[in-house]
Amino acid sequence: MLVLRSLFYILLKFPVRLLVRCKVIPDKLQESIVTDDKQPTFYVVRHQSASDLLALQAVCKKMNLPDPLSKVTVGDEAFPRIFCLEKPTSLFSRRKGRKTVAIEQGLAVLEQHKKYNDIDAQLIPVNLTWGRAPTKEKNNANVGTILADQESPTWLRKFFIVLFLGRNTLMRFSEPLSFRYMADKHGSDLAGAQKVMRVARFHFHRQTIAATGPRLMHRQQMFTALLANPSIKRLLADEAKSKGISPEKVKKQALAIMDEIAGDYRDSMVRVGERILHRLWKRLYSGLKINNADVLRKVAEDGHEIIYVPCHRSHMDYLLLTYVIYHQGLVTPRIAAGINLSFWPAGPIFRKAGAFFIRRTFKGNRLYSTIFREYLGLLFERGYSVKYYTEGGRSRTGRLLPPKTGMLAMTIQSLLRGIDRPLTLVPVYIGYEHVMEVGTYRKELSGSQKKNESILGVFKAIKNLRNYGNGYINFGEPININQFLNCNVPNWKQDIDPIDPQKPTWLTPNVNKLADQVMTSVNEAAALNAVALIALILHASENKALPQAELEAELDFFLMIQRQAPYSKQLTVPEESGKELLAHVIALKKVTVDSDSFGTFISLSHSAALEMRYYRNNILHTYVVPALVCRILSRNAKVAEIDLVTQVQRIVALLKNDLFLWQNADDIETQVKQVTAALADHDYAKISKAGFWSITDNMQRKANIRSMGECIDETMQRIAIISSLVSRLAPVGKGALEEKVVAIAKRLSVLNNIDAPEFIDKKAQAGLINTMKEHAYIGVDEQGLYVANSTLANVKDVVTNLVDIEVLQSIAR
User: Fold this and answer.
1) Which of 107, 191, 597, 685 is the right S-S partner for 679, CB 3.0 to 4.6 Å?
2) SS3 content of the chain, % helix, strand, coil (to 5)
3) Matching fold, domains 269-524 and 713-812
4) pLDDT of res. 1
5) In which element (H, E) is residue 745 found?
6) In the prediction, which pLDDT does 93 show?
7) Rounded alpha-carbon distances, angstroms, from residue 202 to 13, 94, 127, 424, 528
8) Per-residue pLDDT, 340
């Protein structure tokens, strides 16, 4: 019998090798697996299938892992290396999931662990998903759907699965499970063996759902479900009555809105899109850097409803993030896209890839807002992952925009329907070394009218495609909305109403708090890159130019600071040296390279400086604390550590809302001490026995510290303008103060050659004024006018010391 089976496997090897292409997740599994005599390796798979085992054998060979079809010795007994949970359904039987000898094998292995205490066998779960198509509602099934339903297929059905879906196979390896742990924790008896296999079976089910998604609902079925929704039914009746029109006409209007909003997800479109994008990314990017994806997969496997909340830099975000999610072995989300992208032919393509469309504003249209809210709730109720941009639109400056809270509010309202699974937000930082719309952004910020997207614009964009350097996708720490509400609104579950949830009084303030937490988490997951770092350094230098050797040294200094005193745990820092990063940016033609008799120097032309400011703003927030430390040290002969920490804390507290920084005083103190320790380790600064910090006498090191301190110069000028004006003009009205601040900012931008839209932006200035008011530096008198509180002097003294005297004189004049 064994000889026949071996011969059968040999005969099948060639067709399986020809027909099967596996995407392996994760692709660096071998780093977490130890293979030695004391830790023998086993695999557990879902089905006892020759095609599954041969596909696994081929992948293990490529990854230098033990052969799953071989035997392994544990203690004094030899065992098959593979555990199969179910046998295929018999061709002429309806019995599914027939049992195998997996439990008996597991029991025997556990008994060996009871005999020999020095053995710790590891069991690696391997889940094979043939094709990525979700199952569909019964009345909407087709041949592809039937193939995708892989519950214990017969050998004949498996033949067609391999034939049609083999080249789109996902093989997911999970972290090894310790038999030693199971034996010690749960015993080495039959119950322990059953628990191991039960856990594996449930684990595979969760992974399959995470990869293919829940049962797919057709578009028309969604419309039917929405029309049956109690809130929509009641609203349609009210609309007909209040406007004096027939119910049929109101229903027709509702269907038109649903048709405008709803997506039309097709797995076939996602597969075609993946192949096109795979080729496109190879042409556009040197590489895609993806970080913290393990956390994302864990959240999906734990059964959470995932809501992706990325920053929004470019239209490329829609494609890039969806592509990355697909390649992480997860089902692609339903994407909230602006109605401006619904033009032909992009609109129908995006709909079939999972996009649904949203208008810029809902104001004055109760019917639209209700239908959209209930559509979003239906997506959550059915278990579909969703992606939306809390900024509402693309950032034109490179900094995060203030969050729009509408989608977050509707998300929490959906939770109040009593959804039985946790809703989890996954912040995503998307970074580029080149944003293809950056030239357009510059024109729009200069006053040009924004052009509507069109097919002609798509063709122009395709024509201008070139090497864009690297792309970065960093997944931040997930935010469980259920836990957030438990902490901030302990009695929130009392407002759950499955039929018609109302808007509770606690909703708005907590949505605002959650929105700020999301934006802060996005910034914590930032990715430093060569272009952004060089943009930051050159904009901090005089005339935006530096000798090549000095620029390389500055890069090494900036990198050292973030490696030893990182902004956050999620921040990613390039591994390359400053010299390697500069060579990469020169190859991308982002800077001008010139030479004279003294050597080579790097500079930015006027247009390049405008463009590079965008990338500088992507990462400016990560250097706020180091820049403040360096600025304070360079402006003082010596400073006590406690004073250094206090001054940084005061300034960071003012910039928290402006740059979406964390505001925990203890965290700021920790990073300040990390920065000063790094400066001391590399002989940039020293601390006296009395506890005073000062800069060392090395001229090059002084230049490095001055350069980093200059990164925060424009921000200090903005605070100086506000504090000075409030002190001199108070009492002053809110509007008058904002106008004066903007007027002086515009004047300074001309005098100091600051070509930065955010420096003179009225909303940004108003936000900073409001923050100073929140921190009680600015007060309000009985007439509602702004006045200077006594505490304003504390900030004014710090800022005055950190701003150049010429700037202070300009403000005073």
Assistant:
1) 685
2) 55, 15, 30
3) no
4) 46
5) helix 734-751
6) 59
7) 30, 22, 11, 21, 39
8) 83
User: Is the CATH code 1.10.10 the one for domain 713-812?
Assistant: yes
Q: What amino acid occupies position 23?
A: K
* Per-residue confidence (pLDDT) for residue 597, from 0 to 100: 81
Tokens 């049962």 correspond to 215
pTM over 0.85: yes
61 token code pair:
């060979």
d(CA 203, CA 26): 16
Spans in the chain with pLDDT lower than 50: 1-2, 146, 148, 455
Q: Which residues contact 809 (CB under 8 A, 6 or more apart)?
A: none
Q: Tokens standing for 223?
A: 């419309």
Query: pLDDT value at position 201?
Result: 86
Paired with 594 in beta bridges are 601
- The domain segmentation of the chain, as residue ranges, is 2-212, 269-524, 546-710, 713-812
Cβ neighbours of residue 401 closer than 8 Å, sequence gap 6 or more: 312, 391, 392, 393, 395
Kind and range of the H or E run holding 78: strand 77-80
Q: Which fold has domain 269-524?
A: Glycerol-3-phosphate (1)-acyltransferase (3.40.1130)
Alpha carbon separation from 632 to 257, 320, 643, 698, 742 (Å, rounded)? 57, 41, 10, 17, 26
Q: What is the pLDDT of residue 501?
A: 78
Structure tokens at 464: 């201008």
DSSP sequence for 85-124? EEEPPPTT----SEE-SHHHHHHHHHHHHHH-TT---EEE
State the pLDDT at residue 227: 93
